[in-house]
Amino acid sequence: MSGCEARDAKKLVRSSSGLRMVPEHRSARSPFGLDEPPWVPDKECPRCMQCDTKFDFITRKHHCRRCGKCFCDKCCSKKVPLPRMCFVDPVRQCAECALISQKETEFYDRQLKVLMNGATFFVTLGTSDKSELMLCRLSNNQRYLVLDGDSHYEIEIVQISTVQILTEGFTPGGGNTRAIGMILQYKVPGAEELTQMKFTASEDFSSNKKLSATWLAAMHKVSWGAGREE
């Protein structure tokens, strides 16, 4: 276990929104997580915030667990997984939020698992002309990019500023490209300038190429998709 994973214990907590499995220490929280939103107070919400239906004894009000707004049952009937808030079970969400959460499900079910399983790359630090074969993976608490070889690096995800995916095989008509590496820039605490790392896929076996390309695609999704805190 690396130092960045030493405080991964979790606890079960209950809120008005449902059961959540959260890290015991806030410092171990995933950078992809979201805080529960404050609910719009009942007294400030006499009508559905989507269709404007008036609430009464028959038309009850419900709060979306993702945005905290108040809706009627028709406008807030979907129960959808919300891993970014660590809910144990699917929770009630409005139609707009449910769509966003459903799109994020693929990220949590696929890309995160790919990143945590890791892939092997030749890693070059800064302007060095030497590269080192390293296993690169996302830590179990999702806070660090961990690189293991003869050397060891732990890069905090929130310190990564840019990720440039390197490809080959471009054709005039487009398509038929595959990811072969990436250039990553990140901030080292206390340093004024960004540090750069270049990752190049190992060419030893075709299976390694496919795994590396899949890992790089997932890394790109983290940087520009569901990956950062809102």
From TrEMBL:
One family name in Pfam for this protein: FYVE
Domain FYVE-type: 42-97
Keywords (A to Z) from UniProt: Metal-binding, Zinc, Zinc-finger
Signal peptide: none
Matches recorded under SUPFAM superfamilies: FYVE/PHD zinc finger (SSF57903)
Protein name: ZFY21 protein
PANTHER family noted in UniProt: ARRESTIN DOMAIN-CONTAINING PROTEIN D, ZINC FINGER FYVE DOMAIN-CONTAINING PROTEIN 21
Gene Ontology MF terms in the entry: zinc ion binding
